[in-house]
Design goal:
Shape: elongated
CATH architecture of the largest domain: 4-Layer Sandwich
Largest sheet: 8 strands, mixed
Number of strands: 21
CATH class of the largest domain: Alpha Beta
Structural class: alpha/beta
Helix content: 25-40%
Distance between the termini: 105 Å
CATH topology of the largest domain: Deoxyribonuclease I, Chain A
Strand order of the largest sheet: 1-10-9-2-5-8-7-6
């Protein structure tokens, strides 16, 4: 055989034996020559008449060196909204190293499968986990989260994250790729997991790791038990990088040259990347983001209400059929917590409440006027502990120290735990002048602002402007509300009127054009929502009594035309609460939850919010806020005041000199050329509450905290009220 034939034959043997050579002597590669060096050595050997067997040996040994020539990409994380990307990346890698050297891994929840509803979803589970960590006695915390999750897995159906999800997985299996599912679920959830996988067309037993045997094992002595069955590895919430290595060891599978992994959670991908960082393997980590919008839209309050509704049914099924499928504990508060989830009807009075001592509570409202113009900016601010405006807002709350406070113009973003971030990054941080404060309970909900109506609400021939939303706004949630409380909130009993129709208000003030025609078409008028943000009735448990916080933020009575549509809407948004306090008027009303009627006659309440209406001055419709100030159930005799407001009125002058109201009662600082300072923010208690003190946080120049007066163009308003022992 000639030289050229020997070399070509040796090269063929090298390529055939390359996996064996490099698999058994991977460490040898660093000592071996690359391709160009090898060719030079071969030519040199030929010229020196080196025996043929030595050349063959040289070519064979160069196999590991040649392996370095595969153009494999470095390990990396890739954003992806389509599982087809898994197939594409796997195919590219296979072209370099062969299919047998590529391992494909899929997460399950929000990657292959997703819940139809929020309750029981992956996002619900992690919300519950964070909620319990922040406050184990929060009334929304379920008793035994894992048991509840198991019951909900048993009861719920799941859907594929994309219509062709199962086809993508099976297609790769048909092509010969080894694939398996790596999930954070535990072995206790195996039955419901396999049920939904099979129902949606997934079968990982076809081409997976191992010999098909079921493995139930602890990866380490101090880890939780895991289960590998039919190509699905249930890791019980443990580090996915460590679990992957443990499974490869348990199944005697060699480390592949390349891994393609799809998972919706970046931390799981990072765990795998970190675990394999020192290994000779490339990891293409696809962060699957197709479900991100649905996760971001998670409605915690709705999920809490759903759990309250379904828990009794699940317990009844358990009682009838036994605990083979799931095992829920009996309902009740966690150990060491009082029962704050069971809230009596506001018309009922317990003997315990009747004998309880009076309870003093400070209630406040504060329009923080953050003024964010884009979605996500509020989240960014809350995640930045150095955000100056939020630091100043926190300093005011730490100074006044209300027990319950409504924040207006606090953007609603369901993708973040806004209250948790505000507590951790700002309120829990002491300042030079005030101690930290914590609000373990909160309520927030969707706002009409920025939600597109599809209607031409402002009659300009278009339907896509901020004025065509149900409430003025450039994005959903803009100018939202957040209620913070030191006392438990009865979430299942909250009532909201976000969807209440303006035309549903008896005697509603429908805007008219100067020529006598209706400004809104009949089609628009019959669909138009009254609340520009929302109206909330939030029951707060103060000791053994329930205080109803009636929260709102009516639209400003300006920025319109001769039809005065915003002025009339402001008037009727205020009137909604006035009529809600008259059960005979509101008897036929339905809230967003489907419950009828107004507030019970003896229920104590405080109306909180920026009403955008001054009783004496400004652009509001005549008598707008008097609907509350002069209401038979409202005690408006104690008017919150400040020295700073008087000083500001005198120093700023302008139109303030013509204002008719008491400057000391002003709560907002507006342009002194046109509007001046007004009283538009209110904390109005019911007649059956005793008010012992009140104020506006507007320090004069010689008072502590004066440097905080420019945080917002509104000032925090507070009252100290007393719930007597004989109130419900």
């Amino acid at each position: 055989m000639g030289w050229e034939q020997r070399i070509q034959s040796s090269r063929k043997i090298r390529y055939d034996l390359e996996p064996t050579i490099c698999g058994s002597a991977s460490g040898l590669a660093q000592w071996l020559p690359d391709r160009s060096q090898t060719e030079t050595m071969i030519v040199s050997a030929k010229s020196r008449s080196i025996p043929g067997f030595a050349i063959v040996l040289l070519v064979l040994l160069s196999a590991c060196a040649v392996t370095q020539e595969h153009t494999l990409p470095p390990s990396q994380k890739i954003e992806s909204a389509d599982l087809a990307d898994v197939r594409s990346v796997a195919s590219q890698l296979a072209a370099e190293v062969g299919k047998e050297q590529v391992l494909v891994i899929y997460d399950l929840d929000n990657t292959l499968l997703a819940m139809e509803q929020d309750l029981g979803s992956d996002q619900w589970y992690y919300w519950q986990k964070d909620l319990q960590a922040a406050d184990p006695c929060d009334p929304r915390v379920v008793n035994d989260r894992l048991a509840a999750q198991g019951a909900l897995y048993f009861a719920s159906a799941m859907r594929p994250t994309q219509p062709d999800a199962a086809a993508v997985v099976s297609g790769l299996q048909d092509e010969g790729f080894t694939s398996f599912a790596l999930t954070s679920r535990g072995a206790d959830f195996a039955a419901s997991t396999f049920r939904e996988l099979h129902r949606n067309g997934f079968d990982f037993s076809r081409k997976s790791l191992g010999d098909g045997a079921t493995l139930r094992f602890k990866p380490t002595a101090d880890s939780r038990e895991t289960l590998y069955e039919d190509g699905v590895y249930l890791t019980a919430g443990q580090d996915k990088g460590e679990m992957l290595l443990a499974l490869l060891k348990a199944t005697n599978a060699p480390l592949p040259r390349a891994i393609v992994m799809a998972d919706d959670k970046a931390e799981n991908l990072r765990a795998v990347l970190d675990a394999l960082a020192a290994q000779p393997v490339t990891v293409q980590a696809l962060r699957y983001n197709r479900e991100d919008a649905r996760v971001a839209a998670f409605d915690a309050e709705k999920a809490a209400a759903q759990w309250q509704a379904v828990e009794p049914a699940l317990l009844q099924l358990q009682e009838v059929f036994g605990t083979d499928n799931y095992q829920l504990p009996m309902p009740g508060p966690p150990e060491g917590c009082s029962d704050v989830q069971s809230v009596p009807d506001s018309t009922a009075m317990s003997a315990k409440a009747a004998s309880a001592p009076p309870q003093r509570v400070r209630v406040a409202t504060f329009n923080i006027a953050m003024g964010f113009s884009k979605a996500g900016e509020m989240a960014a601010a809350l995640q930045n502990p150095q955000h100056q405006r939020l630091q100043q807002v926190a300093a005011i709350l730490q100074t006044v120290r209300p027990d319950i406070v409504l924040l207006n113009e606090f953007d609603y973003d369901p993708a973040i735990d806004a209250a948790g971030l505000l507590n951790r990054n700002f309120l829990a941080v002491a300042t030079t002048s005030a101690l930290p404060i914590e609000y373990p309970y909160h309520y927030r909900a969707q706002s009409n602002t920025g939600i597109r109506s599809g209607l031409d609400i402002n009659s300009n021939g278009k339907t896509d402007g901020p004025e065509d939303a149900w409430g003025f706004g450039y994005f959903p949630g803009q100018y939202g509300m957040l209620l913070l409380s030191r006392f438990p909130i009865a979430i299942p009993q909250v009532r909201t009127f976000q969807n209440f129709l303006w035309s549903g208000l008896a005697g509603a003030k429908r805007p008219m054009n100067p020529d006598g025609s209706h400004f809104y078409t009949d089609e628009t008028w019959q669909q138009l929502r009254l609340s520009s943000k929302s109206h909330w009735d939030v029951p707060v448990k103060v000791g053994d009594r329930t205080l109803h916080v009636l929260a709102f933020h009516p639209t400003p009575p300006v920025f319109d035309g001769p039809e005065n549509r915003n002025g009339l809407r402001n008037h009727d948004e205020i009137r909604l609460w006035a009529d809600y306090l008259r059960p005979e008027v509101a008897a036929s009303w339905s809230d967003d939850q489907g419950r009828k009627g107004g507030l019970a006659p003896q229920a104590p309440f405080v109306i909180l919010g920026d009403a955008n209406a001054d009783p004496h001055t400004g652009d509001s419709f005549p008598g707008a806020v008097q609907q509350l100030l002069e209401h038979e159930r409202v005690d408006s005799r104690v008017v919150p005041r400040s020295r700073g407001a008087v000083e500001a009125s005198q120093q700023q002058a302008g139109v303030n000199a013509q204002q008719k109201g008491d400057a000391a009662a002003d709560t907002a600082d507006f342009d002194d050329r046109y509007t001046g300072n007004l009283r538009i923010d209110y904390a109005l208690p019911s007649q059956n509450l005793g008010v012992v003190d009140a104020g506006v946080f507007w320090p004069a120049s010689d008072e502590p905290g004066h440097e905080l007066t420019k945080v917002s163009d509104h000032h925090l308003v507070w009252i100290d009220a007393v719930l007597a022992g004989d109130q419900p």
